[in-house]
Each structure stands twice: as structure tokens, then as C-alpha cells.
Amino acid sequence: MPDSIDKLVELGFSEYEAKAYMALLRKNPVSGYELAKLSGVPRSMIYEVAGKLTARGAAMVLRKEGATFYAPMPADEFLDNLQREHEELVDSLKAELTTHTENPDLDYVWNIEGHENIMAKAAEMIEQARADIHVALVPATFPALRPMLEEAIRRSVQVMLYTTGDVDLPGGRVVAAHMSEETLEQARGLGLILVIDGEEVLVGEWLTDTQARASWTSNPLLVFIAEHHLRTDLYLPQILALLGDQALELIEEEDRELFARALESEIARKT
Known about the structure:
Elements: H1 2-10, H2 15-26, E1 30-31, H3 32-39, H4 43-55, E2 59-64, E3 67-72, H5 75-99, E4 109-113, H6 115-128, E5 132-137, H7 142-154, E6 158-163, E7 173-176, H8 181-187, E8 192-196, E9 200-206, E10 212-217, H9 220-243, H10 246-250, H11 256-270
Parallel strand pairs: 5-6, 6-7
Antiparallel strand pairs: 1-3, 2-3, 4-10, 5-8, 8-9, 9-10
């Protein structure tokens, strides 16, 4: 019972109103005097409280033989009406506030904490995609996003998926770069890069099995860098493989380890 009273208070009831309404649900119709006894609301306050319950549509006034009695609006009916009123109010307020809101500076980078919040943002982005999706992820992340990606494909959105293992995404283009265990372990934390329509990017990092963080932005430069990274990763291993030993002559010594990892994935793919 106290839990229900607390929830009614969260919906805007005063504590006395919540106690009186709960008492009416247990027994009705009752007089104001009896309602005070049942609810614990002071007699000096009970008629004011009952009047507020009636005004908000939670109670009804019944008159019989010159006496006044109170009965509750059935809980399911009252809560349905309350939910509808709140939804209408939110919709109306949203429209009003939008006209008073300046366009936000979307060049900011927003930080997101927690696996569920990151995946929810990724799902939202995918659902809003209109033209193309570029996404790089580890296979373990794929099942959670697969339904949204499949729905995007059904909307004729082009989906390019880069991953480190074999995944199945009919209608999408999948590029699997097979890596050594050592290289895969080094990259494992970076579990998600998602670029939508060349307009926004989400980069997610899994620190542990229970900790994750991500950054989201629509900064044009950062979006371009992320998409450029994904697109060039598609071709770089093949280019390096074609160049062979000549690649070592073109690449500075301090950068060779980085390019060696790209070349490694192409060799692994062929074998």
C-alpha cells in the first residue's frame, strides 16, 4: 500500500489525496467523516482533499437523502484518462516549445555511458537512416543491431558492414577482415563505429563486460573522418597485397607496424 501511495504522489497527488483515494478503493461510498477515519487524513482537511480528488477526476460525489458520500473513479479508468491527458499535454508542449527553441550546436561531442544506452542510440540512428549506413563492429555486437539493420535494408537503405568474423546480413554488403588473435585482442575494446547518411557518427568502446562508453556527434569533420576510415579500410589490405614488398619502400618505418596489420587481414582472408 505505501508503494502505491508513493506512486500516486509521483503522479501529482498530495500524500493526503493519495491516502484518501486508496481508502475509497477499499471501501465506498463513504461519508467525509468515515473517509477521514479510513484514510488517516485529519477531519479538518478531509473535505478539501475530497474536493481535490473530485476535481482531478479521481472521485465522485454522491448525494442521498441530504447526505454527501464519496466514491472512487475505478482505478483503470482513472489511470487511462490520466495517461491520455498527460500524452496530450506533452504533445502540445512539445509543439509549443519547438517554436521557441533555437537549433542546437550539433558540433558538440556527446558522451554516452552504459551498454544499453549505447545500443539504444545506435538503434535510434539506424531507424532514422535514409540513404546509407556504414557500421564496423565486432561479431558479438551484431545480434543486437541485426533486426534494425535488416529493417533498414527493407527501406532500401544501403548497408555496409565491416566486421572481424563471418556474419550473415542478406541485402547488405559485409566485409570480414580476419585478424590474428593478438590483433583482434588489441581492437576488441572498440566494439562499434556507426555512420549514418554521412551526417552523424557513434563510436562505442567496451572497457569490460559491464562497462561501456561511447561518443556521438554530427560534427561534419569528425563524421567525414569516421566514414573515410571505414571506406578506406575496405580497400587498403587489397592495395597493400598488390604492392607486396614495394609497399615497404613507400611506407615510413615508424608506420610499417600499422600497415602490417592491414596487410595481415588480407593474407588471412586469402588463406
